[in-house]
What does this fold into?
Amino acid sequence: MDRDKRIPYEGRNRRLFNFPLEIGKSWKDKFVTKGAIKEYTYLETFTALGWEEIVVQAGKFKTVKIEYKQSSADEPAKEGKLWYWYSPDAKYMIKCQYEKSRYWDAAYDWELTSLELKK
It folds into this structure.
């Protein structure tokens, strides 16, 4: 937000969710970042892989596992992957896990530690 004016988010993962999430569904997007010297364009691919029941610090959840692939439009052979677990009950991401590779500058796996659902 810029005072009273909404500014659309144009960064990474802006289309992480493309409802309805159907198993096997894939969708694509791209985003641009501005470096000190030039702009960089990144390509994104999202795929709903399947249902998984996972246990994290916040509890046990039935989730849809989503694979995220990112590559540079300038160097499409270089690609990084990560996975998100989305819970329809919590209406939130429960966990994120990065592929261990040199693609990501700083990658930190995380999981939900607590959640209180309001009735």
The chain has a mean pLDDT of 89. The first strand starts at residue 26 and ends at 34. The chain is about 0% helix and 50% strand. The radius of gyration is 16 Å.
